[in-house]
Every structure is written in C-alpha cells, then in structure tokens.
Design a protein that fits this description.
The structure holds 2 protein chains of 2 kinds. Chain A is mainly α. In chain A, 67% of the residues lie in helices and 0% in strands. The longest helix of chain A is centred in the N-terminal third of the chain and has 32 residues. Classes of the chains: A mainly alpha, B mainly alpha.
C-alpha cells in the first residue's frame, strides 16, 4: 500500500464518471472470456432440464458462474435441495476470501454502497478491481471503479446467459469455448507474479490444487488458496528484504 | 417451485459470503499479519482456478497422451508475461489450442 507512482495514470483521473468508466474499461478484455462461459452455462442449464426463465434468473440471483454450473449438474442428477444449497455454499467459500481482501479498500464508502458492491463481487470483477486497488492505492473513486467493472460483468453475464438459452444446441459441443475463461485468469495472474513471495504463493496454490483434487465440493480451490497465501506470507517473512517493484500493470 | 426456492437460498448465501468481511471488517480488528496475508489472495486464487483446467486428462482416443490445453496455456502465460495484454493472451491461447487440436 506504500508504493509510489512516478507516472500519471489514466485511472487517476478524478471524478466518479471517470472512475466508473475506468472500471468498465478494465473489465472489457475479461468479457472476452466471460461471454463463452455464459453461453455454455445457458446451454448446460437447458440440458440439465432447468426451465429457461429460472436458468436466466439464476444468473441474477446467484450470479456466480462456477456455482451455477455445479447447480445445473446437481439438478440434472436430481439432488435434494439441501445438498444443492450446501454445495453452493462450500463452492463459493472463496468469496469470503475476496470479501476480506477487498474490505480494507471499502471501509469509507458507507453501508449502502457496501451492500451494492458486495452483490457485484464475482471472480472476474474482484480480480480486476483488487489488482487495480493494489496497483493504485491512492486512486480516487474506488467505489465507482468496482461499480463499473461489476456492472459491465453483470450485464455481459445476463446477456450471454440469454444467448446460450436461445442458441442452445446450435453451438457444437466440440468447440473449446470454455478454455477462454482460464485464459483470462492467466492474463490477470501472470503480471502480478513479480517477487519471490508471489512466486511462492502461485507455486504453492498450483501444486496444492492438484494434490487435494479429490476433495468434495471443489474444496481444493479453497485449500489451495490458503496454501498459496501461507507460502507467500512465509517467503515474505523470511526472504531477504529487497526493493519492491511498483508496477503500473 | 422448490427449485426456485433452492436457487434463492443459494443466492442469498452467496451474497452473505460476499458481504461478510466487507461489512464486519472494522468490528473484527484482524491482526496485521492477516492483513498482509490478504495481498496474496488474488494470485493464489487465480492460479488455483487455472491449473486444474490446464492439467485435465487428454480427451478419450487422443493420438497424443497430452491435453493440448497445457502447452496452449503455457504459451498464453508467456504472452501474458511479456505483453500484459488480456486480449492478446486470450487470442494466443485460443489460437494455440485450435492449431494443436487440428495437428493431433
């Protein structure tokens, strides 16, 4: 939080409108990966026998891509409601980590804003926004930036869900459209791996997620995230102090 | 009707998870070491989301016992590292997957 920036950055332009638009702009490339994901979700939900109206409503009510895929799978397998709810809760536990990680930046925005912004805290809006906050801790208009990135994602998720429901089976299942999403995560992750501590966090998370892949409820994600955080912390603690790169990203 | 109720409850729980620490942050007064730990959340979660997708077993009946997603993902990682451009990274990765799938 103490990095200084010699270069002026377009995100530092003042005013709610500019911060909002900066959030939208930062989210735009991510949407390339989100659109196919939404399409596939719509198709998967239909194939699972979920009525189109409910499949669309789920994109607004749950608004969490991977959890929605899990719900579709469980509905197709005629899983009891309580098991579905419990599974979604565990699959989405990483959002508690997101909430903790973004919380320090959202303490002065007021309760009303917190309640709105929390709704928008998906994987993709969180990732873009927290990386912006970390790179530009002094940039004004934080709430507007997250509102912009979050709403851009929200609108795209609803529209791509609808497109998936409408197009349905016309998209051949052999098209590897789902690969676009991990690629967007790669694009976001690589630039922030920039010191021994973040390298350690990445390695520990990557190895752990595979080692504990057998855990139910996709708990391997959460365990891997915690292992990555611990590894990063340990290396930061014990590695000889060196100049931290202040990167504009 | 039951399915609607299930979705609404699942959605409310997800929302509560997202709001949890944003709302409770100042009341909880977490120790400073936890606040430092949070710097590593984005990179750790992103890598945990990526790796299982790259290391999927190869498709059944594939000629080469390697899923083309791994080399395509590694190429995309290199593009991300050098260009720091999201669009180029996605484009390079998708193109690499397409070419590798056609070759093998």
């Amino acid at each position: 939080m103490s990095e200084s920036h010699s270069q002026p950055h377009r995100f530092l332009a003042t005013g709610p409108r500019n911060a909002f638009l900066a959030g939208v702009r930062a989210e735009l490339p991510i949407l390339l990966g989100v659109i196919p994901f939404g399409l596939i979700y719509g198709i998967t939900a239909l194939a699972a026998g979920i009525p189109p109206l409910l499949a669309q409503a789920m994109s607004a009510i749950v608004f969490a891509g991977s959890a929605q895929f899990v719900i579709a799978q469980l509905v197709a397998a005629a899983t009891p409601a309580a098991v579905i709810v419990l599974t979604v809760f565990v699959v989405n536990l990483r959002h508690v980590l997101y909430s903790a990680s973004i919380a320090p930046y959202l303490q002065r925005v007021g309760e009303g804003w917190q309640k709105v912004l929390a709704y928008l805290l998906t994987d993709e809006a969180y990732a873009v926004t927290i990386l912006h906050y970390q790179a530009h801790p002094e940039a004004p208009g934080r709430r507007w930036f997250l509102l912009g990135s979050g709403l851009a994602l929200w609108g795209t998720w609803q529209a791509s869900t609808a497109a998936g429901l409408l197009l349905g089976a016309t998209i051949p299942p052999s098209w590897p459209l789902d690969f676009a999403l991990p690629l967007t995560f790669i694009a976001l992750a690589l630039p922030v791996i920039q010191d021994p501590a973040t390298v350690a966090a990445a390695l520990a998370a990557g190895v752990t997620v595979m080692v504990v892949q057998g855990l139910p409820f996709r708990l391997n994600l959460l365990v891997a995230a915690l292992a990555g955080v611990l590894a990063g912390l340990a290396v930061e603690q014990w590695w000889p102090q060196r100049r931290r790169r202040g990167d504009g990203g | 009707m039951m399915l609607w109720l299930t979705i609404v409850v699942a959605g409310l729980l997800t929302y509560a998870q997202r709001l949890s620490l944003i709302a409770l942050w100042e009341k909880l007064q977490l120790p400073p070491v936890l606040e430092r730990a949070l710097r590593f959340v984005p990179v750790a979660v992103l890598v945990a989301l990526i790796v299982p997708d790259l290391l999927q077993p190869p498709p059944a009946g594939a000629a080469v016992p390697l899923n083309p997603r791994l080399p395509a993902g590694l190429l995309a990682a290199a593009v991300a590292w050098y260009t720091r451009n999201v669009t180029l990274t996605i484009g390079a990765g998708m193109l690499a997957l397409l070419v590798l799938s056609l070759l093998f």
